[in-house]
């Protein structure tokens, strides 16, 4: 439980500031998070998926049912409906990806994944993290395939 508390406080502080940050056109993370993770678009996501890079959809189950998911997604909720960190997130993530492997995070629009990407790098030691900037809504807008649940 102490590890969860250590993850939650800095993460909530980051969320408060990250939600207003603009994504740079270079594909790098927003100012202040530079070089921590890489923002990617849908074409880059598709290329990474072809290389079998692990994709984690961090939304909640009701969101997965509403929109479907990118085929091949690992569905692991990061934030509860109350905004807290899912206590099982870290253990579930470690089952599908280790810190030395690349991992992609996707959510609804890219806001939660910015916070999640920073957490993976700064607090969990992940080295190669990708954030899908427009999330599943952008994927669907581009008329890309989804798996319905």
Structural class: alpha/beta
The mean pLDDT is 85
Total domain count: 1
Kindly report the name of the CATH homologous superfamily: Rhodanese-like domain
CATH class: Alpha Beta
Strand order of the largest sheet: 1-5-4-2-3
Number of strands: 5
Number of helices: 6
> What is the H/E order?
HEHEHEHEHEH
Which CATH architecture is right? 3-Layer(aba) Sandwich
Distance separating the two termini: 32 Å
Enumerate the spans where pLDDT stays under 50 for 5 or more consecutive residues. 9-26
Query: What name does CATH use for the topology?
Result: Oxidized Rhodanese, domain 1
What is the overall shape? globular
Helix fraction by DSSP (H/I, runs of at least 4)? 40-55%
- What's the main sheet like? 5 strands, parallel
Radius of gyration computed on alpha carbons: 14 Å
Chain-wise SSE layout:
Layout: H1 2-18, E1 38-40, H2 42-50, E2 54-57, H3 61-67, E3 74-75, H4 89-96, E4 103-106, H5 111-122, E5 129-132, H6 135-141
Parallel strand pairs: 1-5, 2-3, 2-4, 4-5
Helix pairs in contact: 1-5
Q: What does this molecule look like?
A:
Helix 1 (2-18) crosses helix 5 (111-122). This protein starts with a helix and ends in an 8-residue tail after the last helix. The model is unreliable at 9-26 (pLDDT under 50). Helices cover 40% and strands 11% of the residues. With 149 residues, it is an alpha/beta fold. It has a 5-stranded parallel sheet with strand order 1-5-4-2-3. The relative contact order is 0.22. The protein has helices at residues 2-18, 42-50, 61-67, 89-96, 111-122, 135-141, and strands at 38-40, 54-57, 74-75, 103-106, 129-132. The protein has 6 helices and 5 strands. It has one domain: Rhodanese-like domain (Oxidized Rhodanese, domain 1), CATH 3.40.250.10.
């Amino acid at each position: 439980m102490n590890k969860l508390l250590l993850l939650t406080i800095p993460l909530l502080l980051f969320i408060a500031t990250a939600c207003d940050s603009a994504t740079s056109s270079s594909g790098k993370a927003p100012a202040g998070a530079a070089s921590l993770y890489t923002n990617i678009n849908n074409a880059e996501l598709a290329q990474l998926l072809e290389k079998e890079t692990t994709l984690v959809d961090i939304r909640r189950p009701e969101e997965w049912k509403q929109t479907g998911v990118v085929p091949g997604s690992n569905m692991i909720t990061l934030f509860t409906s109350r905004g807290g960190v899912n206590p099982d997130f870290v253990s579930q993530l470690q089952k599908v990806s280790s810190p030395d492997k690349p991992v992609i995070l996707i959510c609804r629009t890219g806001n939660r994944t910015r916070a999640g990407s920073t957490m993976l790098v700064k607090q969990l030691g992940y080295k190669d993290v990708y954030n899908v900037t427009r999330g599943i809504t952008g994927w669907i807008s581009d008329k890309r395939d989804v798996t319905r649940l």
